[in-house]
Amino acid sequence: MPVTRDGAPTLALQGRYETVVDAMEAAAHQFGERDAYVEGGRHISFADWNRAADGLAAGLAERGVGVGDVVCIAISASIDYAICWAAIAKLGAVASGINPRLGPREFSAIIQRCSPRLVIVENGSKVSQEALHTIFMPRAGLADHYTRPGPAARPPLKATDPVVIVWTSGTTGMPKGAWFDHRNLAAAISMAGPMAAPFDRQLAQTPFAHSGYMSKLWQQLAFGITLVIAPVPWKASEMLRLMVDEGITVAGGAPTQWAKLLELPELEEADLSRLRLCVTATAPAAPDLVEKVVRRVGCPMIVRYAMTESPSISGTVAGDAPEVLYRTVGRPQAGVELVVSDEKGVPVADGQVGRIRVRSACVMRGYWGDAQATAQALTADGWLISGDLGYIDAGGNLVLVGRVGDMYIRGGYNVYPLEVENVLSEHPGVAQASVIGVAAPVIGEIGVAFVVPADPARPPSGEELRSWCRERLADYKAPDRVVIVRELPLTAMLKVNKDALRASNPAA
Prior knowledge:
Shape: globular
Strand order of the largest sheet: 2-1-10-9-11-12-13-14-15
Largest sheet: 9 strands, mixed
CATH architecture of the domain at 406-503: 2-Layer Sandwich
Number of strands: 25
CATH superfamily of the domain at 406-503: ANL, C-terminal domain
Structural class: alpha/beta
Oligomer: single chain
Mean pLDDT: 92
CATH topology of the domain at 406-503: GMP Synthetase, Chain A, domain 3
């Protein structure tokens, strides 16, 4: 990404602004004719996005939405979602995204925690507003407000005002709402690194309720980025079509998505000359996959690591060896402090496993309406105590080994599932793998691996996979049982749902 002489990133948006609302209105003035979003055949410019948000803000104000109120957006990733987010911010209210894939129990828990003034829902939503004691606004009525005049006056806003709540995936219990103010959103600009350049066209393939969207709106404005929204369900052919037709410059995807893209015969003739960066996350990308993507797509690939509570943490850089992308999540991003510590907060030596702690200007201010959880997660001097375990390798890169609750103890030895999953994923017969610990007599716990085979007609045997692991890891880390499955259960945020795997009674 281009930088100025003092090391600051080169931005599309000129000037300094107090809030994301100020930045949005400036973007509408400075490059308003440029696309802000593309969704199918629908395009909306920065100026039209701003005008539509003004109109919807007037409609929300008539429904009683004001400064400090929470408004939940429970619709799919779309231009409508983006307009809702901006309209809520313009009123000094707090936008809270709810993934529409969440189940009734999770949906209800979020509503109870944040007590929204209003919930914007998909047409025909089966969630009961009477049961939740809240007011719904169907998506079908949104567009009626887009062309109307905005509110007569905008409330005074401060950089310290809360602006978004992002909910955790709920893999360790009910979702918690990480909240961010305008300062948090502004901090994402300097931490973008290679992920953003002026007037990028980025392919958006994750739910907008995710922190990768909710907490990066100011970054989009600062760089004048066009987001091209991928349709659901995902298809490799559609991903390639959008990359070509929309002149995508930055594309992100899970390793399995990149692998599917490489299988397309039409990739050979596709014009991807504008693509400058490929990004992978959610699972390790095997070195041979990285090499193939770089060679056939014609641009570097990087890995990014973040979490709901800290949307910017670490990443690799263009030119890192494929093995670095596979084994690590790179080094801390600009402005991010990272330490690996024991349970008392004392840093451990490089190479030793510990809990990851992060401190930066983009770390959440706390969990909405949950002072106890906030006190457990944030120290008085601003460190976020994550639930992730890892270590710093000899090259200074962060290596993840799993979540605190995922580690199991087999015969007195600690086993970190992510380490085993990475080795299993190297096997040519394995498409995906997830490992959990389950209780067992005498030995305490054993490891059970759930494996999606690369070829369902010819899955690898359990003994073959155990031998594969024993040749590459300590023998006690090899899974005791291997369960072949068609697919792994996912949470609404597209992470492997290990609670569902545990509930499948794998010890039987």
